[in-house]
Design goal:
alpha+beta; 22 strands
Length: 379
Amino acid sequence: MRTAILGDVATINPRGEKVEDDAPVSFVGMAELDPITARARPLESRRFRDVSSGYTTFRDGDILAAKITPCWENVKIGQAQLDHAVGVGSTEFHVVRPLERLHDRYLLHFLRQSHVRATGALRMIGSGGQRRVPAIFLRELRIPLPPLPEQRRIAAILDHADALRAKRRQVLAHLDSLTQAIFHDMFSSVRDRIALGELAVWRSGGTPTRTRPEFFEGDIPWYSSGELGSMYVDDSKEHISAEALLMSSAKAIPAGAILLGMYDTAALNSSIATSPGACNQAVAFAIVDDGAALAEFVYFAVQAIRPQVNKRRRGVRQKNLNLSMIRQIEIPRASIDDQREFAARVEQLTEQRKVVEVAEECSDELFASLQSRAFRGEL
């Protein structure tokens, strides 16, 4: 199949739009770019004069790709669907605007492929939690370029297949909301509160130097905040060695520890580690005193207040939590018997969820295969 350099068939980070000061524009933060639906929906409307500097400007229909880790790896790539012709948003967005030879939905599906994201991650520049995909990676990226009618056909097939996957994700979301409803029903009336800092000693991890490649050739899971979210985690994308653990600020995480993300849109992403591991500096972790609280209870208690707590994040370009803020988070001081009852009900729902997750994994594998065939010209 014929290919093209993306920078020849799309504009990467086009110059700012000419907009009247009083004109309304759609404001889209990083949190509004949904990695599941691949849509960037506006948080609110603002007057352009209030957001004309310090933000990225784009048009309705543009493709937005988060440049910063871990958002890029977590598929924060989607299409702007705005309430106005022009939008403004995070400076951590790359804007990709297809030209006349490139279909927007075809481009979106191409960029969301796992191998494109993996290659982009390897090209990141910067250090620690501030690594970013450079614009030159997108400009030089080669994209298969069949005629427009064929691009539209491929995009329509992939859109339809993705919609079927979305139905299973809706079932999972329903199970999640049911669990939260049970939590609310059992504990919303509990007025006595306890701070996380009273339940455990909270610490954060670190990043071994990447100038020692052997540090990342071990078998110890090394979690980033973007990998958290499911109630339990047992493995990570990257692994480190025992030597890296000894010779860096990375810290050993015991099985049963609660992990809480602290940075940017991954703030309060939460999981419980089912096996020993380690984490980077964007993750707080602790073993909770099981005589006072169960890990599963703390996990759902934090999720129940996540929106309120995340309003406390601080920062200019990137709003983060810190260890002090984590320790100050207050959750219901519930009896251990009530917590055990809640955990038992959660376990029942978890078993149902596992069945749906297996089906979802099969759907994801089939969709990835469909994507691969589509961009090899075999669809």
